[in-house]
Specification:
The protein is α+β, with helices and mostly antiparallel strands. The protein folds into two domains: 8-144, Jelly Rolls; 158-257, Homeodomain-like (Arc Repressor Mutant, subunit A), CATH 1.10.10.60. The protein contains ten helices and seven strands. The chain has helices at 8-11, 110-119, 130-144, 158-169, 177-183, 188-199, 203-220, 225-231, 237-248, 252-257, and strands spanning 19-23, 32-36, 41-55, 58-62, 66-70, 76-91, 104-107. Strands 1, 2, 3, 4, 5, 6 and 7 form a seven-stranded antiparallel sheet that branches. A hairpin with a 2-residue loop joins strand 3 and strand 4. 36% of the residues are buried. It comes from Paraburkholderia bryophila.
Length: 274
């Protein structure tokens, strides 16, 4: 794999190839990157693990089957949750003209994943021949893949955000609304009302979505459905399967069959400029 050290000078210049990709080794330590931006567009996602991405309009929690597209110059932050293995594709500003104009989350296809992993082996030099065709495939996939609407908006009020982050870190936590309000040092009424105002969901629905987002990541990792239900705190496996089917229109087992995850990258590269 190419040695792609993603320093600020590299991602903030239009010089060099129109596209370069870094794919990183699995890492057990979480990373947390504060607000920053690039002159290049960026598509990034995970092979394994959960990622949260902050932009001006909110924060998304992204499982391994999704990727986030950020047009050039959009301020963003990123944080991993637990062990993480991911990739980033940086695209020259001129090549972003026909790509989405606003940040969005897209479903990662098997074709996109394989093309990205292929591109991560290239040296930093002008593209030609087969490499130019593979780069065109990546741009076409960003342009045409369906935008995902299933996300997990986070509240901005610090106390609510602290509660939300705790639930993301441990979706199986069984504390009820009153207990979370007490832990967050605010009234039950304030927690209930402000959660709807800031996320668009009531507290119970938001917590269900947090569990389902983690379920997607665990399914992508190949965990048995029974184990996922237990790990996420559902009273029975049937309860988990029924909620999953109502949300996604199919059972967890069927959903997992369609994930078609690519290989996990184990060779070192620097992903610390997501």
């Amino acid at each position: 794999m190419a040695d792609l050290t993603l320093d600020r000078a590299l991602v903030d210049t239009s010089d060099g190839p129109i596209l370069f990709v870094a794919a990183g080794r699995a890492q057990s330590a979480e990373f947390d990157l504060g607000p920053h931006h690039h002159s290049r567009g960026q598509l990034f996602g995970s092979l394994k693990g959960l990622l949260s991405v902050g932009i001006e309009s909110g924060v998304w929690v992204v499982p391994a089957i999704h990727a986030v597209w950020l047009p050039p110059h959009h301020v963003h932050s990123a944080r991993s949750h637990g062990p993480f293995n991911g990739w980033s594709a940086f695209i020259a500003e001129a090549a972003c003209e026909s790509l989405p104009k606003s940040p969005c989350t897209i479903r990662v296809s098997g074709l996109l994943r394989e093309a990205v992993l292929r591109a991560s082996t290239w040296p930093l030099e002008p593209l030609g021949g087969v490499r130019e065709h593979v780069a065109a495939v990546i741009l076409d996939e960003i342009r045409n893949l369906p935008v995902e609407t299933f996300g997990l908006p986070l509240p901005k009020e610090p106390r609510l955000q602290r509660i939300a982050q705790a639930l993301i870190d441990d979706p199986a936590d069984e504390r009820d609304l009153a207990q979370w309000a007490d832990w967050g040092a605010l009234s039950t009424r304030t927690l209930s009302r402000r959660f709807v105002v800031e996320t668009g969901f009531n507290f119970t629905t938001w917590r269900q979505r947090a569990r389902l987002m983690r379920a997607l990541e665990l399914l992508a990792a190949g965990k048995p459905v029974t184990s996922i239900g237990i790990e996420l705190g559902y009273s029975t496996t049937t309860a988990f399967i029924n909620l999953f089917r109502r949300t996604f229109g199919e059972t967890p087992a069927v959903y997992r069959e369609r994930l078609q995850l690519g290989p996990v990258v184990t060779e070192p590269s620097d992903l610390t400029d997501a």
